[in-house]
Design brief:
This protein is mostly helical. It is built from five helices and two strands. Bound molecules: fe (ii) ion (FE2).
């Protein structure tokens, strides 16, 4: 069912919708993973890591909404269901249980790195088909790379 007419050709829309759906899934999972670590971190740097992780949650949640609504604006139904996220996320397995602060930082650095790499592929793929979507993804990547920097500095 198509409710919203897309300004893009079918071929361009296919590329762009794949990029936006992939970005949505990664960002929803990133928010979940960051909360999981936020709750489970222990150790001398608990407070700084705990608080910094909530910045990742806020960033990921805000961008997931922007990305989903960009898809909707193009006539593509966004799918942020848990089962879809579980299957499609590019983030590896997050360890179960308590996690010491250094391991917590490594874990979020890895998660951010995985999402950033995929986001940059999407930026490359969407430039020609839809620069407006590419611009959205560039904003996402910029904010994630800022978080990536700060967490790498935590373990520096
Ligand atoms: Fe909290």
């Amino acid at each position: 069912m198509y409710v919203v007419k897309s300004p893009l050709s079918d071929a361009n829309l296919a590329t762009v919708s794949e990029a936006l759906q992939g970005a949505l899934v990664d960002l929803v999972d990133l928010a979940l993973v960051a909360k999981q670590i936020h709750w489970n971190v222990v150790g001398p740097r608990f407070r700084s890591v705990h608080l910094q992780l909530d910045e990742v949650v806020s960033t990921a949640r805000a961008h997931s909404d922007t990305v989903a609504e960009r898809a909707a604006a193009l006539g593509v139904s966004p799918d942020g269901r848990a089962a879809t996220v579980a299957v499609g996320s590019g983030i590896g397995v997050t360890p179960e249980g308590w996690v010491d602060d250094s391991a917590a930082v490594r874990s979020i650095v890895d998660a951010l790195g995985a999402v950033i790499a995929r986001m940059r592929e999407r930026i490359a793929a969407t430039g020609e088909p839809d620069p407006v979507t590419q611009d959205v993804l560039i904003q996402v990547a910029g904010d994630l790379e800022k978080q990536h920097w700060m967490f790498q500095a935590e373990n520096g």
